[in-house]
Amino acid sequence: MSTGVIIALIVIVAVVLVVAAVLALRARGPQHGGSLKRRFGPEYDLAVARHDGDTKAAERELTERVRRHGSLHVRPLEPAERERFEARWTAAQERFVDSPREAVGEADRLIAELAGARGFPDGGQYEEQLTALSVHHAHHVEGYRRVHRVTHTRVDVARDGGADTEEMRESMVEARALFEALMRPSRHEGGDRQRTGTEAERSAPAARASHTLSFGKRRPKES
């Protein structure tokens, strides 16, 4: 075999290897982004919007969230804790009829405490807690964001183009979805142990939705 043929073969092999490497990198990029989009759902779109449409920057942010909080160990709730949280949420929901802003404020505090009890960052670190929750409950974390925003909106601003009663009701409905997700046993506990948080959230029963959508409406008095 002549030297020229050997050189030509080496060049062809090198070109093939380079092309294969480029194709592999291209295939890996969209797959990574697609995985993040599936995991974060609406949070992925919010991150992209926050970065003015820069998908790569948004994906770097979300990847960092997973790195920091993806291995978080969820602590199980004691039966007495579970009962107290459920009773407090029921009371807040009932209070909404007469004092919607107070009810929303209680929902905000309650989710912060419940998340802390389950092993997420303390509620005093709202942004850090929200970030950690977005990794494990991406499809419901917006409810917490909404009740927190309403709670920390000044009352005079709320009267002048701020949150109205219907908006507060909607925020409570969304927040309840996160509350129930946090109350649900993890994979390491009984009950729902075979489903991840995201899977369980997506399969939430329609009965719950009809219940939460009707809360806050005053029941007619019995005759």
Task: Describe the protein's topology.
Blueprint: H1 3-40, H2 42-50, H3 55-69, H4 79-95, H5 100-117, H6 126-136, H7 141-151, H8 155-159, H9 165-183, H10 197-202, H11 206-213
Helix pairs in contact: 1-2, 2-3, 3-6, 4-5, 5-7, 5-9, 7-9
Can you describe what's shown?
It is built from 11 helices and no strands. The radius of gyration is 24 Å and the shape is elongated. It has 2 domains: 67 residues, no CATH class; 135 residues, no CATH class. The longest helix has 38 residues. The N and C termini lie far apart (105 Å). With 223 residues, it is mostly helical.
How many separate domains make up the residues?
Answer: 2
Q: What percent of residues are in strands?
A: under 5%
Poorly predicted runs are 25-31, 191-197, 199-214, 219-223
Oligomeric state of shown chains: single chain
Query: Pairing-aware structural class of the strands and helices?
Result: mainly alpha
* Silhouette: elongated
Mean pLDDT: 80
**Element order: H for helix, E for strand:** HHHHHHHHHHH
Radius of gyration using CA atoms only: 24 Å
Major β-sheet annotation: none
The termini sit apart by 105 Å
Portion in helices: over 70%
The count of helical stretches stands at: 11
DSSP strand count: 0
